[in-house]
Design brief:
By secondary structure, the chain is α/β, with parallel strands linked by helices. 25% of the residues lie in helices and 24% in strands.
Length: 254
């Protein structure tokens, strides 16, 4: 097997353990191999990523994939690539979604909070850092048009279907991004920025929003490291029980 030049890492449940713990062995491996491109690929916002214990070990200039692939940034806060949700896509989403099935709609901003729509604001605004809240859907859409975010976050009460929408779901959380944009497209773009091929890259994953990386035809040679048992039918080169096992496999590959 050739030398691994890049490691793309999902965050929660793959490399970070709740409540925000980076396994010591993985942290030491990152610190000892700074010649490798260590890249996070998460559905989370930049302000959430900056709270990760991994941040202090990463190159602040390296591209990081956030918001489910809709944005590529570095840890200094520079936006390297963004794919905004379009107005017609939000209009379509609101036509097909069952509003009674929603706990809230939310999108983040880099200042460390976000904008929320909910019919139960008193409860949810205490759970999430928010800058503005509203129970008016039209007001929320107006804010959306003003900010032009790249990802819409949705928390649902039960499983729903969103025909014609580009979305991924993890448990009760849905991410909506613009057509054709997901973790797979962002990983391909980042590897092009770095001049690294998929065969020289390892991908650490555990959840449904990681599947676009695995199914992308141009990423078929990426080395797949699956963590946990959430995706029992998904094939991988390595199957691990927990993030505590990731360092051992990466050490072998490096």
């Amino acid at each position: 097997m050739g030398l691994i030049k890049a490691v793309i890492m999902d965050k929660d449940g793959s490399t970070i353990i709740s409540p925000n713990i980076l396994p010591d062995e993985l942290g030491e491996l990152i610190q000892q191999n700074q010649h490798v491109h260590w890249i996070m690929a998460t559905g989370r916002s930049l302000c959430n990523v900056l709270k990760s214990p991994m941040v202090e070990l990463l190159n602040p200039e390296a591209p990081q994939i956030i918001e489910g692939g809709a944005r590529v940034v570095n840890l200094n806060g520079d936006c390297l690539q963004v794919s905004h949700l379009q107005a017609h896509e939000i209009e379509h989403f609101l036509k097909v979604v069952d509003l009674d099935a929603l706990h809230y709609l939310f999108y983040s901003v880099d200042e460390g909070g976000g904008f929320m729509y909910s019919n139960n604001l008193e409860y949810w605004q205490e759970q999430i850092m928010v800058l503005r809240t509203t129970a008016s859907l039209s007001e929320f859409v107006a804010w959306f048009d003003e900010i032009k975010p790249a990802k819409l976050s949705v928390r649902v009460k039960h499983n729903i279907d969103l025909p014609g929408v580009n979305w991924t779901q993890n448990d009760s959380y849905i991410d909506v991004t613009t057509a054709g944009v997901h973790k797979g497209s962002a990983v391909l773009d980042v590897l092009a920025m770095l001049g690294v091929s998929p065969s020289e890259t390892a991908f650490v994953f555990n959840d449904f929003n990681d599947l676009p990386v695995l199914t992308h035809p141009e990423l078929s040679q990426i080395i797949k490291i699956k963590v946990g048992d959430l995706l029992p039918d998904v094939a991988a080169d390595y199957e691990l029980e927990s993030p505590y096992d990731v360092a051992r496999v990466l050490k072998e590959l490096l």
